[in-house]
Design a protein that fits this description.
The protein is an alpha+beta fold and about 350 residues long. The protein folds into two domains: about 210 residues, T-fold; about 90 residues, ApbE-like superfamily (T-fold, Orthogonal Bundle), CATH 1.10.3980. Helices cover about 25% and strands about 25% of the residues. The protein is built from eight helices and 17 strands. It has a nine-stranded antiparallel sheet with strand order 1-16-15-14-11-8-7-3-2, with helices on one face. The protein has a three-stranded antiparallel sheet with strand order 4-6-5, covered by helices on one side. A hairpin with a 2-residue loop joins strand 7 and strand 8. Helix 6 packs antiparallel against helix 7. The protein is globular.
């Protein structure tokens, strides 16, 4: 493990990191075109730099909307909703290839994190409403009653079939679905001939190629809890995903305590492990999504150990004292602004 530079108090990569293209010389052949919308319970923005064909943007946003309709736990027509509201006694359900693939990926990260990340946390996550006007801490009895329902070992995937060991196991793919969807949106854009673009799914940033001036994209690092324009550093990214998980994304404060959305499946309450954020750089966004949550959940030491054991990925852990801790290969990619 290697330590990076210490930033100002509680500096971290924002989950809603600013996907800004910060300069570069030369005149563009085309002007960037962009489309934004509120999908996946967040703001989604797609920007194309080498084409002005807005029909491609329409298709990309439609694709995102289709996947939301498939993987959301709250959309009543989704496959995940159908899984979570299956008839008692149901021990297997057939789903689409895509849904099976996301669940299998979620189970993989549940296994390698030894359950610190767990896609069956839904009975607990449904007790917490971080988007409410006046969010409340669930009562202890409700949490205690739902703890035994959690356990990724209770489900498995066989082809397109999801297998269950009991009636109470439910899934929440919120910690990995955005990454999967970003990858599929990238596939679509490349099929349309796009070679320079940025996909931003509420902070899950995925770059296609590089800037049209020949330089890598520069993904801004936002000061936590600050305005998106308050950056403290950046990462240069070419065909790279930048994904963060942190205590400042979806959260609320009660009686001086900050409650955030990354829940410990063993307690039902948000993790308190000395971390404020983890940011992962990877070629595929689904891996960055899964690893950012898994590594955050494991804490600094075990999370760093897991990240360093996987080829082709790197990241930075931010502790609550503002210290930046870089995994192998991250220091040379991280540019800290003085």
């Amino acid at each position: 493990m290697r330590k990076g530079k210490k930033g100002a108090a509680a500096l971290l990569f924002a989950a809603a990191c600013l996907a800004a293209v910060l300069g570069g010389c030369g005149k563009r052949k085309t002007e960037p075109v962009s489309r934004s919308g509120f999908l996946l319970n967040t703001f989604v923005t797609v920007t194309l730099y080498d084409t002005e064909d807005e029909r491609i943007l329409d298709g990309c946003m439609d694709l995102c909307r289709d996947y939301e309709g498939m993987l959301s736990r709250t959309v009543e027509t989704s496959e995940v909703y159908r899984i979570n509201h299956r008839e008692p006694g149901t021990r297997e359900m057939e789903v689409s290839e895509e849904t099976a693939e996301v669940i299998e990926k979620g189970l993989y990260y549940s296994r390698i994190s030894d359950g610190a990340f767990d896609i069956t946390v839904e009975p607990l996550s449904s007790l917490w409403d971080f988007t409410a006007q006046d969010p409340q801490v669930p009562d202890e009895e409700s949490i205690r009653e739902n703890l035994p329902k959690v356990g990724y070992e209770k489900i498995s995937v066989s082809g397109n079939k999801i297998l269950f060991s009991d009636d109470e196991t439910c899934i929440d793919l919120g910690a990995i679905a955005k990454g999967y969807i970003a990858d599929r949106m990238k596939d679509y854009l490349e099929e349309q001939g796009v070679r320079s673009a940025i996909i931003n799914l509420g902070g899950n940033v995925l770059c296609i190629g590089k800037n049209t001036d020949g330089n890598p994209f520069r993904i801004g690092i936002q000061r936590p809890y600050g305005d998106y324009s308050e950056t403290v550093g950046l990462v240069e990214a070419e065909d790279l995903s930048v994904v963060s998980s942190g205590v400042y994304e979806r959260h609320f404060e009660k009686d001086g305590v900050n409650y955030h959305h990354i829940l410990d499946p063993k307690t039902g309450y948000p993790y308190e492990n000395g971390l404020t954020a983890v940011t992962i750089l990877s070629s595929r966004s689904v891996d960055g999504d899964g690893l950012s949550t898994a590594c955050f959940s494991l804490g600094l030491e075990k999370g760093m150990e897991l990240l360093d054991s996987i080829d082709g990925v790197c990241g930075v852990f931010i502790t609550d004292d503002g210290e930046l801790h870089c995994s192998q290969g991250m220091e040379e990619k991280l540019i800290i602004e003085e």
